[in-house]
Design a protein that fits this description.
alpha/beta, 5 helices, 23% strand
C-alpha cells in the first residue's frame, strides 16, 4: 500500500500517465451517498466528471459485474471510495491492486480486486489498478459530508489535475 503521509507527498507512480490505444484512465467512484461520509467516493467522482477532461468517470452506488466491460477497455482504473477512519487527521490511502489480490480481500463480492479478477477470467486485459481511499468519520443517515472528509475529497480530486 502507498499511503501519502501528507498531501504534499508526490505519488509519482500513481500519477504517471499511461500510453495505450485503450482508454487511458477510468475512474470509478462509489459508496452510499445517503450515509454521510460514505458518499465520499461518489462526491469525488462527480467533481472529477464535472471538469472538461478526457478522463472517463463512472459514479455508482456499488461495484457490480457489469462494470467489467468498462474496466477491460481501460489502460488504468482508479477506484475511489470511503474508508472508516479510526483517528482524526487520517490521510488518503492510495493502494495499487491487482486481480491476484481478489483471494485475500475480505468483504462483499463487489470489491475492486474481484472485479479485476473477473475481467481476467472473461479474457479481458486487466488494467493497471489503484484504490484511493478517502477517510470517513460520520455515517449517519443523510447526505451531509463532514468537514474533515470534505477536505480529503478535495485532495483526492486534486490527484487528477485541474
Amino acid at each position: 500500500m502507498i499511503t501519502c503521509p501528507d498531501f504534499t507527498a508526490r505519488c509519482d507512480e500513481f500519477r504517471r500517465p499511461v500510453m495505450s490505444p485503450r482508454l487511458a484512465l477510468l475512474i470509478i467512484g462509489y459508496g452510499n451517498a445517503l450515509r454521510g461520509d460514505d458518499g465520499a467516493g461518489i462526491r469525488a467522482a462527480t467533481m472529477i466528471a464535472a471538469r472538461d477532461s478526457p478522463i472517463r468517470v463512472i459514479v455508482t452506488h456499488q461495484l457490480t459485474p457489469e462494470l467489467a466491460e468498462d474496466i477491460a477497455r481501460a489502460a488504468q482504473v482508479v477506484f475511489v471510495d470511503a474508508y472508516a477512519a479510526k483517528e482524526p487527521g487520517a490521510k488518503l490511502r492510495i493502494e495499487r491492486i491487482g486481480a491476484d489480490d481478489a483471494h485475500s480481500v475480505p468483504g462483499h463480492h463487489g470489491d475492486p480486486a474481484r472485479l479485476l479478477a473477473l475481467v481476467g477470467r472473461l479474457g479481458g486485459s486487466v488494467p493497471d489498478a489503484w484504490v484511493v481511499g478517502i477517510p470517513a468519520f460520520r455515517f449517519a443517515t443523510g447526505e451531509t459530508i463532514s468537514p474533515e472528509t470534505a477536505q480529503r475529497i478535495d485532495e483526492a480530486v486534486a490527484l487528477f489535475g485541474e
